[in-house]
Amino acid sequence: MKYNFDEIIDRKNTDALNYDGWRQYIFKADKNARFDFKDDEFVRMWVADMDFATPPEILAAIKERLDKKILGYTKVYDDEYYHIFHNWCQRRYDWNIDTAEIVLSPGIIPALNRLVPLLTQQDESVLINTPSYTPFKQAGDYSYRRVICSDLLEQDNEYVIDFDDMETKLTDPSLNIKLFILSNPQNPTGKVWSEQELMRMGQLCLENDVWIISDEIHCDLLRNGISHIPMAKLFPDTDKIITCMAPSKTFNLAGNLMSHIFIKNEKIRKEWLRLYDEFLSPLSVAATKAAWSRCDEWLEQLKHYLDDNFRLVEKFTQEHFPDANFKIPDATYLAWINIEKYLPPQVDRQQLSLYFANQTGILLEGGNMFVSNGDGYIRINLACPRAVVQEGLERIRKALK
């Protein structure tokens, strides 16, 4: 089957965060707040969900489940569900998972919020790399844990871990770090960590009795030719690594609310199940099974389409903004672009999203929204039809020229 990623889908009046909720989310404003453009004039390239249709195989599975006519209380009782996921991890990552370690969560953000108080005491700290997906910091903040940042370094147009800084902070008793939250692949930079980098991060944490949560939600969205290594695969003998995976980013199922959290430590897993053993949507169960068992070809075609979108951005920046030094990321569908040298001096670097929204009617996320170490950057979502990408790039050009 050939899938149509060029299709423009109208998301208006679907209660989509992307289309209807941007005022509240990006700008913390009232839903009726006025901007310089009308709602239907904005190009939306901000939040990390796709403007592509959810795979037809998944929609068919949901319809098939609806035909059963009853949507009653549901949990996963059929071993087929876990067998399908086991096969997915095996063929994609050569990772032989133990499905008995898996607990289910309505999302990775709720999982982080639940795990921080399970893994740490109130006088203990959480370490993150920055720039960072903001909910990593918020997960610490919500439980009144101090969050310590270790900035990523840029070397030869490539992001790397500052291992000296990490080691200094992990071994500092005054910081009392007991949890490291890793983004693998990294959000917002799109970096896929090598085996050597993962091994060194893991060893630093485990030698200092620090838990690791590895958020691997973007692990399926790799550039062609790039491979992902689950952190836990490299340390099979420890129970202090928790892995988070979900079909939501890969198959445009953010509203499906099904994430899979690998908790090897039996004590922590039992406490999670005591607190959070919840019922599931039967439609979400059907959708997730279909994603992992019927959609390999859809994903391969998606990756090729995204590769072409990234090449379009690369060509655009080379032509119009060569000093942005844009590099196609290893993973994700998110472009992280340094526009500092092209920003007018009067533009507030802490309000880049507002500047672009009012200047040319494009919704994107400024680097200031990623905790720290992101000033002068923008993050744009390329999981949208090519015509939308082209229009968005043109609007960025107008705002900066």
UniProtKB/TrEMBL annotation:
This enzyme's EC code(s): 4.4.1.13
Domain Aminotransferase class I/classII large stretches: 49-396
Protein family: Belongs to the class-II pyridoxal-phosphate-dependent aminotransferase family. MalY/PatB cystathionine beta-lyase subfamily.
Signal peptide stretch: none
Protein name: cysteine-S-conjugate beta-lyase
Pfam families the UniProt entry points to: Aminotran_1_2
Cofactors, names only: pyridoxal 5'-phosphate
PANTHER family for the chain: PROTEIN MALY
UniProt keywords, alphabetically: Lyase, Pyridoxal phosphate
GO molecular function: lyase activity
